[in-house]
Amino acid sequence: MKKQRYPGRKKKAGSKTKRYYFTEVHEKAILQYTTADCNEEKTKLYKEIIGPVFNELIEKIVYTYKFSLLPNVDILKEICRGDLMAVLDKFDPTRGYKAYSYFTRVTINWFSHKQKDNAKKLKREISYTDFIKEGDHEKLVTDKNIYYEERDQKEFLESLLWEIDKWEEESIRENDKKVIEAIRILLKSRDDIEIFNKKAVYLYLREITKLNTKQIVTSLKRIKVRYGAFREKWNTTGE
Asked: Which of 105, 123, 160, 163 is the most exposed place for a label (fewest CB within 10 A)?
């Protein structure tokens, strides 16, 4: 008797079966939910398909981004589940998002805001009289500033990468696609790149895209317009 393959599993040659928990089944179920007029149909879709995958999405994000360190994290998970359900009807596929990308970003932002709120609370609760040595106090302030700077930079880059994903889904020139993909590769490999100045960046871009410098510069001018709009939105809203 032939074994039935688990939905959402893919097999790579020479490797073990890998499970992709968020599949086309879930994408279609969410689209069906947003267009359904019957509450009974929506309840069934959420209970049988959408709710379970939201649970797994939240668990994976909490684990991956170490949100598990937040106090009362189990309660926060429950609240987040409710909030995801509340914004289900607001998902609009015509804006160029896949459901997986959209709800992943919503969940990351949700927990990031909770993390920021918790950090502010901890900062208020710190009593400077608890630190006897001035040097200890100065070190604490320096370390906290570094933490916030690194966290802000990480969130900015995550949002930028997510924005870049949307650019590629749009109808753009082939050379622009190559340069955008190269930019994504460089951003994801930034910790492994020892030299990161303007000349080195162009060398990397030429190597990855196989385009000449003039073609790269032309594409970058168009990409810079998109980046400028993203940066302005980030500075205004933080998203």
From this structure: 123
pLDDT in tens, 146-177: 555 666 677 777 777 787 777 766 667 888 88
| 33-90 per-position pLDDT tens digit | 999 999 899 999 999 999 999 999 999 999 888 888 888 888 899 999 988 998 898 8
**How many residues belong to the chain?**
239
For 1, 9, 18, the CA distances from 87, given in Å and listed in that order, are: 43, 28, 30
Work out the percent of the chain whose per-residue pLDDT is above 70: 72
DSSP string, 128-180: GGG--SHHHHHHHHHHHHHHHHHHHHHHHHHHHHHHHHHHHHS---HHHHHHH
The answer to whether 85 and 52 have CB atoms below 8 angstroms apart is: no
Helices (DSSP H) in 8-98: which residue ranges? 24-35, 39-45, 51-64, 73-86
Looking at residue 180, its pLDDT comes to: 83
What interhelical angle do 174-188 and 198-209 show, nearest 10? 120
Give the distance, in angstroms, between the CA of residue 95 and the centroid of all CA atoms in the same chain. 17
Domain boundaries, the chain: 20-125, 155-239
HSE at residue 72, side-chain half, CA atoms within 13 A, is 7
Widest pairwise Cα distance in the chain: 74
1 burial type by CB count under 10 A (0-12 exposed, 13-18 middle, 19+ buried): exposed
CB 113 within 8 A of CB 67: no
